[in-house]
Amino acid sequence: KNIANLTGIEDFTALTELYCSSNQLTSLDVSTNTALTQLSCGNNQLSTLDVSTNSVLTYLWSANNQLVDLDVRNGNNLNFSYFNSTTNPNLTCILVDDASWSTTNWANIDAASTFVNNETECMALSVENNTFGSEFNVYPNPSFGDSRIQLGETYNKVSISIFNVLGKQVATQTHNNTNVVELNTQQFTSGIYFIKVQSGVKEATIKLVVK
After folding, report:
1. Which of 6, 36, 109, 196 pairs with 80 at a CA distance of 20 to 30 A?
2. Closest-CA residue to 194 (of 184, 204, 181)
C-alpha cells in the first residue's frame, strides 16, 4: 500500500539507508538521520527535499517527484557515488557544495535545472533581460501565495503580464507611481510562471516558481 506520510523516522538516528520510493509521499524530513549514506525517494510527490544535515550521504535518487526546492549542500558532494534528480520539471535550482564540480560530474538533472552554490545565485537565475538595474529583485521565489517585485526606483506606470510554461497569458496588472509590486499567486496552480515587467523602455522577465 502506498503511503503519503513517513512518520517516526526522526527517531532512527542511526539509520544508514532509506528506500521509500514509489509511494505518495508529500514530505520527507531526514534532518535527524545524520548517519544516512543512501537515500532513494524517487516516484513520490515531494516538493521540497533538504539533505544538508546528512553529511555522510553519498547516494541520492530523487527523480520523478514535484520538487521545487532541493538542497544537497552537505559538505560531502565530492564523495557522491550517484545523484539523480530527473523528471522534476519545476526544479530550477539545485543547491550544492560546488556548482562547477556538480555540473561536470552529475549529469542526471533536467534541462531546466541548474546547480548553484547559494540562494543568491538561484535568485539571479530567475531574472532575465533585465534593464531596470541591479536593484531589481523578486522575493520570495518560490512563492507561497504572494511575492514582491522590487523595482529599485519609483515608476509612473508599471505593466505586469503573467504567462504559464505553455506561453499562455493568465493574468495582467497595471500599477502607478510605485517602486514595489505585490504579486498575489494564490489563484495559480503550482508550477513555473514567467512574469514580464515593463515600464516605458525598461523591461525584465522573471521566472517564478509557485508552490
Report:
1. 6
2. 204
Inter-residue contact 72 to 48 (CB < 8 Å):
no
Specify whether the CB–CB gap between 62 and 70 falls below 8 A: yes
What are the pLDDT digits (tens) for 102-130? 999 999 999 888 898 988 777 766 777 78
In the structure, what pLDDT confidence band is assigned to residue 68 with cuts at 50, 70 and 90? confident
In angstroms, the CA 39 to CA 175 distance is: 47
Q: What is the mean pLDDT of the chain?
A: 90
- Reference 132, options 87, 181, 85; nearest CA is 181
**Beta-sheet pairing, 69-71 with 93-95:** parallel
Residue 210 sits at the vertex; the CA angle it makes with 118 and 112, to the nearest 5 degrees, is: 60
Least trusted range by pLDDT, from 81-85, 97-101, 167-171: 167-171
3-state class (DSSP) for residue 210: strand
